[in-house]
Amino acid sequence: MIIKYFSWIKEHIGKSEEQIDLPNYITNVNLLINYLNELDEKYNIIFEKKELIKIAVNKTYSSFDTNISNSDEIAFFPPVTGG
Q1: Which of 48, 56, 72, 74 is most buried, judging by how many CB atoms fall within 10 Å of its CB?
Q2: Tens of each residue's pLDDT in the chain, 83 residues
Q3: 28 within some domain
Q4: Is residue 83 part of a domain?
Q5: CATH number of the structural domain spanning residue 60
Q6: Which domain range does residue 13 map to?
């Protein structure tokens, strides 16, 4: 699985993307977030208010209960603002 990070999420994580192999029990975005939170404290800070984070699975806006697999691309980014 490729996970991409954008904006301040990328800055906090320290990388724009990473590739990981998920355990079989990770079947949706919410479980992925829980898994990442167990890996490192930096993810806990990002996902502390996860309802503010936008998600795309394979370049399509998705929700926390969207099913995922190791062949997917997941992107996490903050809400877009403009002026």
Answers
A1: 74
A2: 999 999 999 999 999 999 999 999 999 999 999 999 999 999 999 999 899 999 999 999 999 999 999 999 999 998 776 55
A3: yes
A4: no
A5: 3.10.20.30
A6: 2-77
